[in-house]
Amino acid sequence: MRAGCHAPKFFLAMTADLCYYFATCITNPNRRCTMRIRTFLLAALMIFSLAACSNVKDMKFTDANKEEVIDKVLKSGDLTDPERQSLVIAIGQAQAAGRSLTGKSVGEILAEAKAVKK
User: Fold this and answer.
1) Angle between helices 81-97 and 106-117 (to 10 degrees)
2) Which of these, 85, 90, 79, 81, lies nearest to 112 by C-alpha position?
3) CB-hemisphere CA count at 13 Å for 116?
4) SS3 for 41?
5) Is 40 within 8 Å of 46 (Cβ atoms)?
6) Terminus-to-terminus CA distance in the chain, angstroms?
7) How far apart are CA 68 and CA 53, in angstroms?
8) Which of 9, 107, 4, 117 is nearest to 60 (CA)?
9) 15 has pLDDT over 70
10) What angle do CA 5, 69, 108 make, to 5 degrees?
11) What pTM does this model have?
12) CA-to-CA distance for 7 and 11, rounded, in angstroms?
């Protein structure tokens, strides 16, 4: 597992199975694989790889998804407890001051909170 990748094990297992099938489909001339199957396998491999290693620090706030992003961040295991606390405090301070978080990512807000702490 790569550093910073908190993927569920079934995503990794499924990705490994798809990689194996894809490799044997391409390299084994006796195996009959249509272009449609090859395309599907490649697309599925890319989707699983991206979904397995997404990080909540990359999520951006919009007016529509603000509550959803906060819920995902608090439930995920990507942030440490001090980072979660800093994020909650920064969001509360921004709302109290009337500043908008729209367009900012969770990572940017945490970096600003760290800079303010120092």
Assistant:
1) 90
2) 90
3) 12
4) helix
5) no
6) 34
7) 19
8) 107
9) no
10) 70
11) 0.53
12) 7
Burial degree of 84 (CB within 10 A; 0-12, 13-18, 19+): middle
Higher pLDDT, 74 or 49: 74
pLDDT confidence band for 2 (50 / 70 / 90): very low
- pLDDT interval class at 9 (50, 70, 90): low
Provide the token pair at 78: 């990507």
* Closest CA relative to residue 77, chosen from 13, 8, 9: 8
Closest CA to 18 of 45, 38, 51: 45
Is a pLDDT exceeding 70 seen at residue 85?
A: yes
Burial per residue of 92-105, b for 16 or more beta-carbon CB atoms within 10 angstroms, e otherwise = eebeeeeeebeebb
**pLDDT(62) > 50:** yes
SS3 (DSSP) at 14? helix
Q: Any idea which residue has 């500043």 for tokens?
A: 99
What integer pLDDT is reported at residue 25 of this predicted model?
A: 66
